[in-house]
Write a structure and sequence with these properties.
Elements: E1 3-6, H1 13-24, E2 27-30, H2 31-41, H3 44-55, H4 61-71, E3 78-81, H5 87-100, E4 106-111, H6 114-122, E5 124-126, E6 133-135, H7 162-176, H8 178-186, E7 189-193, H9 198-213
Parallel strand pairs: 1-3, 1-4, 2-3, 4-7
Antiparallel strand pairs: 5-6
Bound molecules: adenosine-5'-diphosphate (ADP) and adenosine monophosphate.
């Protein structure tokens, strides 16, 4: 199966994708993580993407499509987290899958009110070493602001500041939300209630995929 996780920033896509990938053997492709790594390493892509990301804007479609074409594995079995984010990206993905003889099985829309999204984003911390994601209130590390796995001090993402969060939500509504109809029209959209605790959402997610996926 190939899955797309869709929904506003902070809805819990990455958190759920990591759990599902670990349990079921999917390959988790987070374009946000890949871009942050490119920025950190100062690659040509990172240099081009940095300013857009800092402002909470989208990195241009041509760069993103090239990135996905580069990392998409031959055999599929992926969770795409954070891609596509525009209609042209969705079309390019369809074309790419077509060429490979693969299909997109489901698009899972993470549904969550804006207030909750903002609260999740403002409390988010991540490990600069292994990429583990925590929340200071809802999923705190065992030791104050330290990664459970690496013992490294956790960081707050630059784009999780309030002004940037507002811009990212605006960008989501104008550029990404149209994908909901795009996938609904294709008959592969499922809407997931993304509220409640992480484990609760995870059970709901697995149930929804099992129902649709067979
Ligand atoms: P996304 O990938 O959609 O941007 P994340 O998975 O990074 O979202 O989650 C955003 C923040 O919310 C993180 O700090 C994460 O630990 C926290 N979080 C994720 N799921 C839940 C949940 N069900 N309840 C409370 N906090 C959550
Ligand atoms: P994320 O980690 O998914 O919240 O993504 C962080 C940032 O990376 C976004 O705010 C965008 O600037 C950029 N980004 C990630 N994925 C995409 C994409 N598919 N298209 C354009 N920009 C993206």
């Amino acid at each position: 199966m190939n899955l797309v996780f869709l929904g506003p920033p902070g809805a819990g896509k990455g958190t759920q994708a990591k759990k599902l990938a670990e349990e079921k053997g999917y390959i988790h492709i987070s374009t946000g993580d890949l871009l942050r790594e490119a920025v950190r390493k100062g690659t040509p892509l990172g240099k081009k993407a940095r300013e857009y990301m800092e402002r909470g804007e989208l990195v241009p479609d041509d760069l993103m499509v090239a990135l996905i074409e580069e990392v998409f594995p031959e055999g599929g079995g992926v969770i795409l987290d954070g891609f596509p984010r525009t209609i042209p990206q969705a079309r390019a993905l369809d074309e790419m899958l077509d060429k490979k003889g693969a299909v997109l099985d489901l698009a899972v829309l993470f549904d969550l009110p804006d207030e909750v999204v903002v609260e999740r984003l403002s409390g988010r911390r991540s490990c600069p070493n292994c990429g583990a994601v925590y929340h200071m209130k809802y999923n705190p590390p065992k030791e104050d602001e330290m990664c459970d796995r690496c013992g490294v001090k956790l960081i707050q993402r630059e784009d999780d500041r309030e002004e940037v969060i507002r811009e990212r939500l605006r960008v989501y509504r104008t550029r990404t939300a149209p994908l909901v109809d795009y996938y609904r029209d294709k008959g592969i959209l499922i809407t997931l209630d993304a509220s409640g605790q992480i484990e609760e959402v995870y059970s709901r997610l697995k149930r929804a995929i099992d129902e649709k996926g067979d």
